[in-house]
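Hi, here's the filled form for the chain we discussed.

Project: internal
Contact: R.S.
Residues: 680
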Amino acid sequence: MSKKKYSSKSSNKKLSQQNIVANNNVVHSSEQISKLKYEEQFFVNTNRPVWNYSLFTEEDIKNFKNGTHYSLYKLFGNKQIEVLNKQGTYFAVWAPNASYVSVIGEFNDWDTAAHLLLARTDGSGIWEGFIPNILCGESYKYHIIGYKGLKLDKGDPFANYWEKRPDTASITYKINYDWNDTKWMNERGKHNSLNAPWSVYEVHLASWMKPKKNNEESYNSYQQIKERLVPYVQLMGFTHVELMPVMEYPFDGSWGYQGIGYFAPTSRFGTPEEFASLIDAFHQAGIGVILDWVPSHFPYDAHGLFMFDGSHVYEYTDMRKGYHPDWNSYVFDYKKGEVKSFLISSARFWCETFHVDGLRVDAVSSMLRLDYSRKTGQWEPNKYGGNGNLEAIAFVKELNETLYRDFPDIQTIAEEATDWPKISKPIYDGGLGFGMKWMMGWMHDTLRYFKIDPIYRQFHQDEFTFSMMYFYDENFMLPFSHDEVVHGKSPMIYKMPGDTWQKFANLRLLYTYMFTHPGAKLLFMGNEFAQTTEWNYKTELDWELTDLVSHGGMRYCVQKLNELYRSHPALYEKQFNPEGFEWIDLEHKAEAVLSYKRKGNNSNDDVIVILNMTPTVRYNWQIMVKGKNKWKEIFNSNDKEYWGTGDVFNPEIKVITKNKKEKKHLLTLNLPALGAVVLG
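And the returned structure, exactly as it came back:
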């Protein structure tokens, strides 16, 4: 067979010997040892380099096929081990319709006939073998002769490390990192609880900050990101950071959502250990880490999962289910046990190996609905005549059950944009078992309201307040994400009406509403300082804007809102409980002034929020409240430090008791134009 040469970087050929593992904690039975000794002698005598060796037990195979094996990353892929005093690498790959599989790489000059793997005889579709003297740092692929003789060269679905794109080979590797986040891991249950503050900073690592601003090929390393991003997130007061997909992906323009490496952090920024160090640093700074995870679809790149052995291995065979028209990608076959095992193993891998605090599951709507983005005739109803993908529903439930069983202190968060019921409710209550769900309806309604000229907001109050009619149906996260500042939607600051001052005042008002509304919060990078251009994955944020008093003031406003949110229990203790929110006054539509109370476990911690949605100052504004009779202004979005006018504030709140027995008090205060006042 002809040899095929691939472009691989010589620097990847050999990595540190510290990554070599002597035994990988494998216990060999006497039968295995006897068999290996015989086969070692046989292979040496016949000059065959691959040993017939397996890490799989019968129970592993059974669970793999049944969809109940959740740690496949310990068996598949490449494992550096020692067998009969020989160091080398064990390879295992699932290619059920292949007739021939070999390992090709720099170590054999990409010779497709040099290292043939052996097919298991149990019908599992697994090809495996141990190759002596192959250590860490070798670039490799699987050469597969598949269905109808189709020849393919595929990367390893279970590889922990890949060549940096545009090179496409996997790399033999063993992750070896000593963690220093014991304090965080012991205490993270309270940080990740649903009654703890959740203020999430969403980040695209490649474009948050670059060494060369407009150079797409210019990246900060994981180490440089750690040095810059961790202290920034800590300074800004966010409780968590959400990283847009870091799982290895070939095309920058997919933002990571078209992945091929479900067990590998992207090599764009460095090694897996350096990625672990980044997460470790966040934890040591008291910040949780959420990863975007995409079990909904994958791309058709030649070296990826699509048509892995010449047949539809990972994707549905029926393209009415298997092809995704929105993203020109392919949908996982959730009815296959092997695919379920693969995906749930991937989710567990990130939680176990990299200590992540949560997974934000992308495009859940597209998984659940057979008719998602499909017209009549382009989809087939399920056996009950409905539009639900029963296999995907079962998979999601099993995913959440498994993750919360094995990692009870994390959260799973669904990006789900439809009215599918009980996304974030327990499975025993008929739910899907997610911890939280993105509140897309709130986001759309809120932005639509704030885009309206303030003079007309009086006619749209019901639309603005509608969120509280259904808020407690789910555990909602309020997202102003990357999706809202791309594709012609404009940056957040230019969604706001009015002149420059009014735009900034409106945005400060919007953010105050967001941070005092029940639910977790999410803000995409750049939104915190009013980025003036749409997000572009090729270039970094416009950090020079923060030198301007207007944008610097906006950033400081967000910093103080995070401080407000984290320091007042009433804003988070009951954020998913109806008892934590109460409208105070909705009767002033003409003035477009609204007020509400946030309540925690202790009534003395109650917080009052008053929003003035027009550019008119409201002096001596009165509201009737129940509860404590002493209030002070604890936040004012018109503060001069935020680039407000600073001339409408409340050094003292006038309180008149109207009914002592019922604890009813009349409060009088001043409301700045397009401003929010928070009392505590």
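Let me know if anything looks off before we file it.
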